[in-house]
Amino acid sequence: MKRILLVLTVSLLLAQVTQARHCWKKLGRCRTTCKDSEVFYLLCNDETKCCVNPKHVPVKTRSLKPTGSLETSAVW
Fold first, then answer.
1. HSE-up (13 A, CA, CB side) for residue 70
2. Is the CA virtual torsion 14, 33, 46, 43 positive or negative?
3. What is the pLDDT of residue 29?
4. Residue 69 near residue 46, CB atoms below 8 Å
5. CB atoms within 10 A of CB 28
6. Ordered per-residue pLDDT tens for the chain, 76 residues
7. 45, 51 contact by CB (below 8 A)
8. Closest CA to 50 of 60, 42, 58
9. Rounded to 10 degrees, what is the CA torsion of 29, 32, 37, 43?
10. Torsion sign across C-alpha atoms 31, 32, 37, 42
11. By CB neighbour count within 10 A (0-12 exposed, 13-18 middle, 19+ buried), where does 74 fall?
12. Is 38 helix (H, G, I), strand (E, B) or coil?
């Protein structure tokens, strides 16, 4: 009887453990809160945070030549 109770308890505990889904090209994990060593980059499909190691987050670089400007002076 004790063995059955132990097996039942272990199986229920294992059923509660869910594997984290991957995001951001499999470099991040979908979690409700990110670890201290991770940063929140974008949202997963179920609105959890995609937690990524900061070294994998792309850095925006400045362009040397502007390709276009939104500030055009139009005469009405």
1. 0
2. negative
3. 92
4. no
5. 25
6. 888 888 877 776 665 555 668 898 889 999 999 999 999 888 998 889 999 999 988 777 666 565 655 555 555 5
7. no
8. 42
9. 60
10. positive
11. exposed
12. coil
- Joined together, the tokens standing for residue 72 give 């055009």
Q: Which 3 state secondary structure label does DSSP give 43?
A: strand
Are 55 and 37 in contact, with CB atoms under 8 Å apart?
A: no
pLDDT of the residue at 14: 66
Please tell me the predicted confidence (pLDDT) of residue 75.
58
Q: 3-state class of 16 per DSSP?
A: helix
CA angle 33–46–41, rounded 5-degree value: 50
CA distance 46 to 28: 15
3-class secondary structure, 63:
coil
Question: Could you tell me how far CA 5 lies from the centroid of its own chain?
Answer: 37
Looking at residue 28, its amino acid is G
